[in-house]
UniProtKB/TrEMBL annotation:
The lineage of its organism: Bacteria, Pseudomonadati, Pseudomonadota, Alphaproteobacteria, Hyphomicrobiales. SUPFAM superfamilies: FAD-binding/transporter-associated domain-like. This is FAD-binding protein. It comes from Devosia marina. Its cofactor is FAD. Residues 50-220 form the FAD-binding PCMH-type domain. Gene3D superfamilies: 3.30.465.10, 3.40.462.20, Uridine Diphospho-n-acetylenolpyruvylglucosamine Reductase, domain 2. It holds the Pfam family BBE. Belongs to the oxygen-dependent FAD-linked oxidoreductase family. GO terms for molecular function: FAD binding; oxidoreductase activity. PROSITE patterns: FAD_PCMH, OX2_COVAL_FAD. It comes from the Bacteria.
Length: 480
């Protein structure tokens, strides 16, 4: 009896039962085959469009398990995929016939409140981190959907409600323990293996498997001034023009996102508006409550809102506010761009698209990034876009596979209409599978340095199931 696993060269390796038994005995975690209980659960991802069947799954429980799997894959030239939270839109965590290293059982968080740091295992979701840090009145900047995995978020950059005040997630990364392609565990920090530390601070999962992250924490909460302001879509053009002006003057503490979608049946939205197209301003002030009330006055005075629920909310709860609209299992396709300015042409094209949403679950959001993240040099991390800017994500979401073509076409059309006004950069975590050609846009002038570091730590490109950075030597070979 054998198990067939894909090789790095595209071939197939038949792994004998005896070798699998040796691996199973050595592991603390679980080895799962296609016929074993838990296989379908372990291969499932947030994006329901991804339905792939790995040849074998290892559910790691500690860093030694990670080492064993990396060494096994390296020695046998096996195609290896890594799953943290399984939330990536492109679904690189699972590949047909590959060996899947599942980190989801590694959920430890240790908070040193005196030092204001947190050491986090790679299988944690953002909710796990927030729960542990908020117990001490502390937080690290994370994303806005708490079911996202900490590994993918961090390795791609990471931004959310307190980025203006405290920077990107990677700006708060102090160190990491990384299992590299040679099976060695290396500490990556500003003083130890600084090139590796630089590369993982936004360069994705190209350089190894992180088995722990250490973050700097900041005082916040337990409550923050936050909430939603809902407007009719008919008023959106003028409101978005005022929104862009407001963002240019906003203090570091104030973050406001614009969301356009059909109004969900939330209790504070009048039933007559449920299912109708609306503009929602989602806002958070990461600071003193009274100052926050003053800072939000201009935003709250705009137009004639349908609903305004800006109020003190638990920070941990606000971090989960969008979770009900982003549950796992639906079909998702994203197209994204960065914009240095929110031009009228972009606003007009976006509003025309919102008037023809392909599904009630679909939304478009515009996030504003500024403040602390702009005071970091573009070469200090692989994340190159350090100017104050807007991130638009066209988040197409639906349930019926019969809608695949129409939903994807709708997203691509709006993307093409707005692309002439874009900044030429893109957030790597928002790239779908058909945007692999845009990886260089995600890193800008930092791409060459990343390729050199990839050549040093992973010359055979073992860690290739990601938005891949090809080793420098391979790039030179392809261009010769």
């Amino acid at each position: 009896m054998t198990v067939a696993l894909k090789e790095l060269n595209g071939g197939t390796l038949e792994v004998l039962d005896e070798r699998l038994a040796e691996l199973r005995t050595a592991l603390e975690g679980q080895l799962i085959g296609k016929d074993d209980a838990g296989y379908d659960e372990a291969r499932s991802l947030w994006n329901g469009m991804i339905d792939r069947h790995p040849g074998l799954i290892v559910r790691a429980t500690d860093r030694r398990d990670i080492q064993l799997v990396v060494n096994f894959a390296q020695r046998n030239s096996i195609l290896l995929s890594i799953k943290g939270g399984g939330h990536q839109i492109a679904g690189h965590a699972v590949a047909d016939g590959a060996l899947l290293l599942d980190l989801s059982q590694m959920k430890g968080v240790h908070v040193d409140a005196d030092a204001a740091t947190a050491t986090v295992e790679p299988g944690c979701l953002l909710s796990d981190v927030d729960k542990a840090t908020q117990a001490h009145g502390l937080a690290v900047p994370l994303g806005i959907n708490s079911t996202t995995g900490i590994s993918g978020l961090t390795l791609g950059g990471g931004f959310g409600w307190i980025t203006g005040k405290h920077g990107l997630t990677i700006d708060n990364l102090l160190s990491a323990e990384v299992v590299c392609a040679d099976g060695e565990i290396r500490t990556a920090s500003a003083s130890q293996n600084p090139d590796l530390f630089w590369a993982i601070s936004g360069g994705g999962g190209n350089f190894g498997v992180v088995c722990s992250f250490k973050f700097k924490l900041h005082p916040i909460g337990p409550e923050v001034l936050s909430g939603l302001i809902v407007h009719p879509l008919s008023d959106a053009r003028g409101l978005l023009q005022k929104y862009r002006d407001l963002c240019a003057r906003a203090p570091d503490e104030l973050t406001v996102w614009a969301v356009m979608r059909q109004a969900p049946p939330l209790p504070f939205i009048p039933p007559a508006w449920h299912g109708k197209e609306v503009l929602i301003f989602a806002a958070c002030y990461a600071g003193d409550m009274e100052q926050g009330m003053q800072s939000m006055q201009e935003l709250r005075a705009l137009g004639e809102p349908i609903a305004d629920v800006i109020a003190p909310h638990p920070y941990e709860g606000w971090q989960q506010a969008f979770d009900p609209l982003l549950t796992p299992g639906a079909r998702n396709y994203w197209k994204s761009n960065d914009f240095l300015a929110l031009h009228d042409e972009v606003i007009d094209a976006t509003l025309s698209a919102v008037a023809e949403l392909p599904d009630p679950q679909t939304e478009i959001f515009i996030a504003h990034l500024g403040g602390a993240m702009t005071r970091v040099d573009p070469s200090a991390t692989p994340f190159p876009q350090r100017k104050r800017h807007f991130v638009m994500n066209i988040h197409t979401r639906w349930s019926d596979p019969a809608q695949d073509q129409s939903c994807i076409a709708w997203a691509r059309e709006l993307f093409e209409q707005t692309a002439p006004h874009a900044a030429g950069t893109v957030y790597v975590n928002f790239l779908p599978t058909d945007d692999e050609g845009r990886v260089s846009e995600a890193y800008g002038s930092n791409i060459e340095k990343l390729r050199g570091i990839k050549e040093k730590y992973d010359p055979q490109n073992l860690f290739r199931l990601n938005h891949n950075i090809v080793p420098k030597a391979d790039v030179e070979l392809m261009s010769a």
